[in-house]
Amino acid sequence: MSNNSFAAASEIECDFDGVLMRPFDPCDHDLDANFRLTRFADLSERTKKMPKDVHSKVMSVEQPRGEPEAKGQKETMPEPEPQQPKIALDISARGSVFTKPTPLFGDLQLVQATDFGYPIIDDPYLMGKIACANVLGEMYAKGVVACDNMLMLLAVSTHMTEKERDTILPIMMRGFKDCAMKAGVNVTGGQSVVNRWCIVGGVATSVCKEIEIIQPNKAVPGDVLLLTKPLGTHVALNLHKWMTADGDKWKFLKHSFSEEEVGKAHSMAVKSMCRLNRITAQLMHKYGAHGAIAIAEHGLLGHAETLAACQQNDVALSICNMPVINRMSSVATQCGDSFQLMRGRCPEHSGGLLICMDREASIEFCKEMITMEGPSARSWIIGIVANGDKTVNFSKQRVIDVNI
Amino acid sequence: MSNNSFAAASEIECDFDGVLMRPFDPCDHDLDANFRLTRFADLSERTKKMPKDVHSKVMSVEQPRGEPEAKGQKETMPEPEPQQPKIALDISARGSVFTKPTPLFGDLQLVQATDFGYPIIDDPYLMGKIACANVLGEMYAKGVVACDNMLMLLAVSTHMTEKERDTILPIMMRGFKDCAMKAGVNVTGGQSVVNRWCIVGGVATSVCKEIEIIQPNKAVPGDVLLLTKPLGTHVALNLHKWMTADGDKWKFLKHSFSEEEVGKAHSMAVKSMCRLNRITAQLMHKYGAHGAIAIAEHGLLGHAETLAACQQNDVALSICNMPVINRMSSVATQCGDSFQLMRGRCPEHSGGLLICMDREASIEFCKEMITMEGPSARSWIIGIVANGDKTVNFSKQRVIDVNI
C-alpha cells in the first residue's frame, strides 16, 4: 500500500473527543514515509504476556537460595531466612495488578496499577494516549476514580535513528500526558531507557479512602454482566497492519473485506482504546456495582475466570453475548480463529470493564453512560450471574456486530 | 574460562548480610553451564540511559498535535488544546524521578521512584536484590525511610528457553522480594512481559508526612560532601565479564590484574550494589543533612551537577576525592578512560548517596554509620560546599583505593 492509503486508513480515527485532528503522517515530521512505530518490536500477532499457566508455574516454584541440593556438598551454605514463605509476589496473570490495599494513615488505602508493552499502532500520539488509558483502566475497575500520580515508562528502540527518536518520543509523551490530564492526574516522572524494542507504559497511583474502592468479589445470583467496550481490538489492529503491509494475509482477506471496512474497524478500535473508563467507574459507584475487572491480554474469558474465581458467594458467570467491532468476528473466523476470539481468549488492548451489577440498576447505568459520554459509550449486557462454583459458563455465544 | 572459574570468581561475593550463601551456578539448576543472565541484553558496555543532552532536547521540543504546518492544507485540523503548555513531563535524566510531592490529605505527601534496566550480573538472586536496592536508593536520597509499597517490573527474553525462564524468574523475584523485605516493604504486584531483552526493575511508593522528606536543596557554604559507597561498580562488572568471556580485552588486561583481584572487585561491587541506603537515610535525618542525591547512570559528576543546580543558596560543590573500588581506577586508566571514570561520568549501579552536611555532624554521621552497619558502611568526605554559581568544581581528583 502506498503511504497515501496508510494516511487514508487512519484518517477517520482521529475524530473523537469532539475534536478533529490530522492523523500522524511520518512525512509531516521529515521521517521516512515508511516509518512505522509498530515495527520497533517484533512480537507480531503474539501477545506480550506470558500465558496464564506459565505464570502459575513460575509463582508456585519455591526456589530458596542454594537449592536444589548441591552435588558437591562442600559449598552448601545455610539458608539466609530458613522460614522464608512461598513466593507471595504476584507478578500477575493480569495486565497489571493492584496492591492489596493496606491501611496507611487511618482509613487511607494505597492503590496502584502498572503496565508496559510495545507499540500496537503507528500513531505515536494516540499510542501514548492508549498506554495511559490502559494503565488507568485497572484503577477504574476497582472503582478508583481519582488518581493522584502517574509515572511513564518508556524505552526507545536501539534501531531507531536519532531523528526518529527525537521526533517520536515527545509526541508519545504528549499523548500520554494529555490522556492523564483528561483523567485529572499529572504525570510527574518516570523512566526512559534504550531497549531493543520500543516500550511504552506507566504506573498509576491513588491514595484514597476505602469507600472509593469497589471490591470485585460481591456478585450475587441475579446480577447481570455488563461489558463497556466492544471486543476485537487485537483483530482490528492486526488486520489493519496486514492491509498496510499488503502481504499474503491481506491478499487472502481482501476479497472479503474492503479497505474502508478495515479503516473503520481500526478507527473504532483506536477510539475505544483511547477512551477512559473513568465515567464507567463513577457510575459503578452510583449504581452499586458488585465487582468489575478490566479486559486485557487474557481476553474476555480469561479475565471473567479471574473475576469468577475471586467471588465470595457461590456464583458462576454465564456469558452469552459477544459485542465485537463490526466484521471482526468474520475476520477471526476466516483466520481459522487463530485469534481465539470466539473462544474468548483473544487479547484486548485498553479494553472495557466487565461489571457485575443488579439487573434493574444496569438498565439505568447503560442509559446514563450514553447521556454522559454519547453513543460511543454504549454498554452491553453479555450474561448473568447464577448459582455456581466460581467458574464461567462460556458457550453458545451470540455475536453482536458493533458499529458506533 | 571454565565454569569452575566462573563459580570461583563469584564465590566470595555472597558472604554478606552476615550470611554465607552458595553462589549461583547454572548447573545446580540443570541449566547449561554457559548460561549467563547478562547475555539476554546486548547493550555491552554502554549505559542503558539516553545521554543527558538527548533528554534535554526531547523535553524541550514542543510538538503540538498536527504540527508541523501541513503541506496540503486541506486536512489541517484545529489544535485539541490550543493553550497546551510545553511538555512538563520529566522522564528524567536520572535513573528515576520523584514526584513533586503533592498534598493529599492534610500534610501527606506521595513520593515515588521507578527504574528498570537489564541484568548487569549473572546471579539472578542478587540481580533481583540489586534492582530493588537501586529503586529504593532514590527514595532514601529524599530521606524517605519507610516505603509503603513496591511493584516489580520484569521481562523475560524471547531468546530464553522455557526451562531458563521458569528457573531464572522465580529466583530473580525472590531476590527482589527479600531485599524489599529487608527494607520493611512488601512487593504486592507488578507487570511481567516478554521482551527481546530481559528486564528487571520496580516502582517504590511512600505516602508520608512532609517531615519525613529531606529536601535536596538546602546546602550552605561550609558543608562537606559525603559519599556513602565507593565508585567503580560499572568498571568492576565489565572487567569481570571480560574475564569470564576470556576475550581480547581480558588478554590485554590479564598481565596487570589477577583473577583474584577481579573476583574481589566484582564481589565488592555486588555487595555494595545490594546494600540498602536505608540507614544512611535514617542518619541523614538525625544529623540534619542539607540535601542528597543517589549516584546512578550519569556518574558522580552528572548527579553532582543536578544536585548543585537545584540549590536555593548560591553555592558550588567542589569534589576532590574519588573513593573507587580497589584497582578499578587503574583498569579505567588502562582502558584509555573509555569508562570516563576519572572524568566523573562513569555510570554507577545502585550507587551511594552524595550528601551535603555540616562538617562536624558529618564526622559523627560517618562514625555512627559504621557502628550501625559495620565496616562496609564506610563513607568518605569527598569535597566541600563553597560560595558559587550552582555548578560543580571537579578537578585534581585524588583517588582513594577502597578495599573493604
Features:
homodimer; 404 residues; six-stranded mixed sheet; four-stranded mixed sheet; 11 helices; 10 strands; globular
Topology:
The structure is a homodimer of 404-residue chains.
Chain A: H1 3-11, H2 52-60, E1 108-117, H3 124-141, E2 149-157, H4 162-182, E3 187-195, E4 199-209, E5 224-227, H5 233-245, H6 248-253, H7 259-274, H8 278-286, E6 291-294, H9 299-309, E7 315-325, H10 328-334, E8 353-357, H11 359-373, E9 380-387, E10 392-402
Parallel strand pairs in A: 2-3, 7-10
Antiparallel strand pairs in A: 1-4, 2-4, 5-8, 5-9, 6-8, 7-9
Give a short overview:
Chain A is α+β, with helices and mostly antiparallel strands and 404 residues long. Helices cover 33% and strands 20% of the residues of chain A. Chains A and B meet through α2, β1, β2, α4 and β3 of A and α2, β1, β2, α4 and β3 of B.
